[in-house]
Amino acid sequence: MHNAKKTTICLKCGVHKDLHFKRCKPSWWGNKPKFYTFHSEGESQRYVNLNALSLYGAIHSLRLQVAFILTEDRQRKYIADFVYFDTRIRSFLCPNGRWVIEDFKGGYQTETFQVKWAEMQKKYPQFIYKLSDKPSGLIND
Ligand SMILES: [Zn+2]
Fold first, then answer.
1. How far, in Å, are 40, 59, 60, 89, 131 from residue 128 at the CA level?
2. Distance, CA 21 to ligand 1 centroid (Å)?
3. Distance CA 54, CA 51 (A)
4. Above 50 in pLDDT, residue 75?
């Protein structure tokens, strides 16, 4: 394991649990906070950016930690950090956008991960595969 530190933030407003008051910020007034622990600070910040992209309508249907079966006996599976529909990835055949499977890797990639990542692309070729290692901005994302 690399030295990633688990980070708990509110999925609604992105504020760290330790700094969060009882309710979310005014625009989410009345909403209860929804805390979630990410594997690392970087992954939590990537979520904050993806959530912003959702609010802008660039992506939708964002899900966290989605399991995919790799073998028919269900013994092997891969868990994606993020799955979402990206309306910016358009083509003649997919005029509305594409589904994306994204894995956040804050540095070191294990051999197990690399094998599963390759298996996923072979088994589920309908997805766009994206590796991220930083939160990224709204413009160059
Ligand atoms: Zn909040």
1. 23, 13, 15, 9, 10
2. 8
3. 5
4. yes
Give me ligand 1 centre to Cα 120, in Å.
33
Centre of ligand 1 from the C-alpha of residue 10, in Å: 5
CATH topology (fold) of 41-132: Trna Endonuclease; Chain: A, domain 1 (3.40.1350)
The tokens describing 90, both together, are 């358009």
- Condensed to tens digits (0 to 9), the pLDDT of residues 15-63 reads 999 888 777 776 666 778 889 999 999 999 999 999 999 999 999 999 9
pTM: 0.86
Residues 6+ apart with CB under 8 A from 19: none
Domain boundaries, the chain: 41-132
For position 1, what pLDDT does the model report? 45
Q: Say if residues 51 and 82 touch (Cβ distance below 8 Å).
A: no
Q: What is the mean pLDDT of residues 92-100?
A: 94
In 3-state terms the chain splits into helix, strand, coil percentages (rounded to 5) of 25, 30, 45
